[in-house]
Specification:
Radius of gyration: 11 Å
Distance between the termini: 26 Å
Largest sheet: none
Number of strands: 0
Structural class: mainly alpha
Number of helices: 4
């Protein structure tokens, strides 16, 4: 799908949405903290797109509590 394709190419928003879907088990995705960690770490490294401060803060807080490395 387009969301995954964008995320695989490093889209900030695509990575954010996939991480969120896996973290919360939304949009037909299973709750999977390993996948959420993977996509949100990729989001943090993204140079493509803009990041809202609230999104970056939410992801950083979630990763510090739940990240599976």
């Amino acid at each position: 799908n387009y969301l995954t394709a964008g995320a695989e190419r490093g889209s900030f928003f695509g990575c954010f949405l996939l991480g969120d879907a896996f973290a919360r088990g939304f949009h037909g995705m299973p709750k999977d903290f390993k996948q959420a960690t993977t996509w949100w770490r990729k989001m943090q490294a993204s140079k493509t797109g803009t990041a809202l401060v609230v999104q970056r803060e939410r992801v950083a807080a979630w990763l510090s509590e739940h990240a599976t490395d």
